[in-house]
Amino acid sequence: MSRWLFMLLSTIITGCSVTAAMHEIPRSDSQYYVSCPPHVFYCYRKSELICHSGYRVLTVASWEDKPEMIIECN
Q1: pTM of this prediction?
Q2: Is 23 exposed, middle or buried (0-12, 13-18, 19+ CB in 10 A)?
Q3: Do residues 9 and 15 lie in contact, with contact meaning Cβ atoms separated by under 8 Å?
Q4: Dist. CA 44–CA 31, nearest whole Å
């Protein structure tokens, strides 16, 4: 019984401690990677500062501690 409990706890701890990454996509010169902790709202504000004439969101990864997005300027 204790062996199964140990395996269950170590699986849960390992699964919760693994971090995921965004999928790598080829980017052009008008595309930018935006990282903006602590909230995804700041990613959109930062994107407005980077692209003055507007932008298009290509990917969004809203992790709790470190949201990320890739944008393309118009």
Answers
A1: 0.56
A2: exposed
A3: no
A4: 14
